[in-house]
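Hypothesis: this fold can be encoded by more than one sequence.
Test: take the structure tokens below, design a sequence, compare later.
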């Protein structure tokens, strides 16, 4: 009788193991999809603002209604950016761990993962500088005539123009490194 139970237990254990593998693959695919969608949302928005909206504002000689449109779009996009960052910072470490690299153990990182993590940290710092420091400063400075602005306000306004382009370039480099990491 005990012999008859063993094959049934073996088959049941094998089925449970198979279900765990299926669940694990489904979870992995879900994490990858969320990670990619967050990155695409962030980068796609940066491309739209930089290549479509910003030139419209510039070509219109910064007419007030176009500037208001740009500011409104940029403020709405900020919510998309920080939501994407939360998703990326949640899914990224889990995906790294699946490759045997723990975020808390830099010694386990491959050289490509080290480069990607460094670039991501730099991108996060640039984004935070733009959104949390320069953005509010530019908002206040835009109500002041350019000739009456302080040196800091002039610097903030000029930096706020090129910093998003740096973010876009950094994010494109992160994508290239991410592809290399995924293929290695």
């Amino acid at each position: 009788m005990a012999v008859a139970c063993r094959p049934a237990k073996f088959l049941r254990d094998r089925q449970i193991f198979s279900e765990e593998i299926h669940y694990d693959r489904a979870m992995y695919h879900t994490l990858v999809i969320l990670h990619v969608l967050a990155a695409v949302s962030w980068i796609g928005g940066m491309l739209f603002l930089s290549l479509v909206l910003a030139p419209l504002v510039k070509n219109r000689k910064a007419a007030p209604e176009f500037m208001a449109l740009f500011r409104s779009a940029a403020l709405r996009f900020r919510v998309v950016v920080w939501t994407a960052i939360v998703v990326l910072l949640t899914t990224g470490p889990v995906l790294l761990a699946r490759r045997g690299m723990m975020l808390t153990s830099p010694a386990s990182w491959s050289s490509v993962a080290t480069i990607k993590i460094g670039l991501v940290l730099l991108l996060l710092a640039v984004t935070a500088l733009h959104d949390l420091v320069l953005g509010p400063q530019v908002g206040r400075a835009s109500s002041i005539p350019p000739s009456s602005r302080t040196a800091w306000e002039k610097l903030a306004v000029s930096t706020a123009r090129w910093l998003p382009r740096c973010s876009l370039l950094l994010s494109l480099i992160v994508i290239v490194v991410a592809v290399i990491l995924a293929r290695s």
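The chain has a mean pLDDT of 85. Residues 17 and 154 are 63 Å apart (CA to CA).
Hypothesis status: open.
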